[in-house]
Design brief:
The chain is of the alpha/beta class. Helix content is 53%, strand content 9%. It has a 5-stranded parallel beta sheet, sandwiched between helices. The protein has a two-stranded parallel sheet with strand order 1-2.
């Protein structure tokens, strides 16, 4: 049976890929292929199925004492939703019985019900429609991101359920909470948008449940008691204006329940007006009971059906977004490792080029990525880096990590090399191919370095990844870079994550110190 991708899968995939960043690619390749050893030919599986199998295997062997966060967070969100739904149902029923209570002397005020239960929902519906039209007129996606309030709401709910940082929690829950918040910060808009749509859908369903409670309580009250309805106001509303408003509100069901069933007639509206000093003794019963179908139908349409439609739209958008994004750099690297067979190579010792150290990694026997499926890239190399490390070493490092340099752009003047319009400096072949920008890991990524990353990324197409290949200091005795320090790796990950571009990812070219 095909695996259905869940929110827990999305969270855990990001979580495990974040754990793997900076590890030796040969070690990761060997581990990932061993995880799939009894799963048949991974080359024949689709991306989602392959990632699902890998996730199941990784969950059985977590790298830390605490469990992966996916199931913990989704269980917490589900529990919060169930609690909210129960509270909404109870509150709705209580409010319904409270509003439709009739002592026999004072009729139920129709205006009061409309102001509290119907008008806010009509205003919400109109606001949502105007926002949708505004986005479409601006050329944006009709359903791009939910309100920022949902992002705040998710963080608030997460803190409530998992606990606040610094409070005495069980180690598992605290570590899980911090891991998920770290993922949200690292993935930025995409991850918070996914979670926002989930909360948007659930909040609409909770509100529909609350309105359903009011509707059920109202129907029971009307069916079991003799209730009178009327309207009164200090403001001098004309009978005609109230009638036109009622006609407008009842348009959605007027084809099925016309006047006087779907809404009161002009005469019934006039006959149900309550004047304080006159009481209700002179008012006709048929006028006092003419309002209840209109009130219940208004609540059904605007309080429940509209909410369910918005729920369906938000849930659809959530399901569309909740799938593995195989265009992201980390996902591409993982899928390449999973589909590339393990090969053992013993390269012959190359001849030493005069004045240029040869890469030791090209001389060693190792388990490495199958070179039959490398990712074509354009290498972006600063002139001083090429002189320091040598072109043959840089090419070997790239190939070792599953990249196939197709073209090279040499950078002579930092970000100014590309001028003001970076996107106009790359031809179609370069802009549609992944990029590999080489950088020295011990040089802090600030100022010109970040500007250079932005300039190169601007020259690539929207969903084409840019890998920032981090190099350790050159060791001339071994002819290879030294391992990238854990502190340097952490700084680069933080700075690149702060760019807010999920298609820019740091990778370590060579070995890295264990940062966990």
């Amino acid at each position: 049976m095909p695996h259905s991708w869940t929110l827990a899968d999305t969270i855990d995939l990001e979580y495990f890929m974040a754990q793997d960043q900076g590890d030796d690619p040969r070690k990761l390749h060997r581990r990932d292929r061993q995880l799939l050893a009894d799963r048949g030919a991974p080359e024949e599986l689709g991306d989602t199925a392959l990632l699902s199998i890998w996730l199941a295997a990784r969950r059985k062997k977590p790298a830390h004492d605490h469990p992966p966060p996916g199931n913990v967070i989704t269980a917490a969100l589900s529990a919060t939703f169930r609690l909210g739904a129960i509270i909404a149902a109870i509150a709705g029923v209580a409010a319904g019985f409270g509003f439709f209570s009739y002592s026999g002397t004072t009729p139920v005020n129709v205006f009061y019900f409309l102001a509290l239960c119907i008008l806010p929902q009509i205003i919400f519906m109109i606001g949502a429609a105007l926002l949708l039209m505004k986005r479409m007129a601006a050329g944006a996606k009709p359903m791009g991101q939910p309100s920022a309030g949902y992002h705040y709401l998710f963080n608030h709910v997460l803190k409530r359920v998992m606990g606040r940082t610094g409070t005495p929690l069980a180690g598992e829950r605290q570590a899980t909470y911090e891991a998920v918040l770290g993922l949200i910060r690292a993935r930025g808009t995409r991850f918070s948008t996914l979670l926002g749509w989930r909360l948007a859908a659930q909040s609409q369903l909770i509100l529909a449940i609350a309105n359903g409670g009011v509707l059920i309580a109202g129907f029971i009250s009307i069916a079991t008691r003799d209730i009178a309805f009327g309207w009164q106001s200090t403001m001098d509303f004309s009978i005609g204006s109230i009638y036109r408003f009622v006609q407008l509100v009842s348009l959605p069901w007027s084809w099925l329940f016309p006047e006087p069933v779907g809404h009161p007639s002009l005469a019934e509206i006039e006959g149900s007006r309550i004047i304080l000093k006159e009481g209700i003794g002179h008012l006709a019963t048929e006028n006092l009971v003419s309002w209840w179908p209109f009130l219940l139908l208004s609540l059904l349409v605007y309080g429940i059906l509209v909410r369910l439609l918005i729920y369906g739209a938000a849930q659809y958008r959530y399901l569309r977004l909740n799938r593995p994004d195989t265009a992201l750099p980390d996902s591409r690297l993982l899928l390449r490792r999973l589909r590339s067979p393990l090969v053992s190579s013993q390269a012959p010792k190359p001849e030493q080029a005069r004045g240029e150290p040869q890469p030791a990694i090209a001389q060693e026997a190792s388990i490495s990525l199958d070179t039959s499926s490398p990712q074509p890239v354009t290498m972006f190399i600063a002139m001083d880096i090429e002189q320091e490390y040598g072109r043959s070493l840089l090419d070997a490092l790239a190939r070792r990590h599953g990249f196939a340099p197709i073209d090279t752009t040499r950078i002579t003047d930092g970000p100014d090399h590309f001028g003001a319009g970076a996107g106009q400096t790359f031809d179609a072949a370069v802009s549609s191919r992944a990029g590999l920008l080489l950088a020295e890991a011990w040089m802090a990524p600030i100022g010109d370095t970040l500007d250079l990353i932005k300039a190169v990324r601007a020259g690539l197409e929207d969903e084409i990844p840019l890998y920032v290949g981090l190099l350790g200091r050159m060791d001339y005795e071994t002819g290879c870079p030294t391992p990238v320090a854990a502190d340097d790796w952490a700084v680069w990950r933080k700075k690149i994550g702060a760019l807010g571009d999920p298609f820019v990812a740091p990778v370590v070219l060579g070995s890295a110190e264990n940062s966990r």
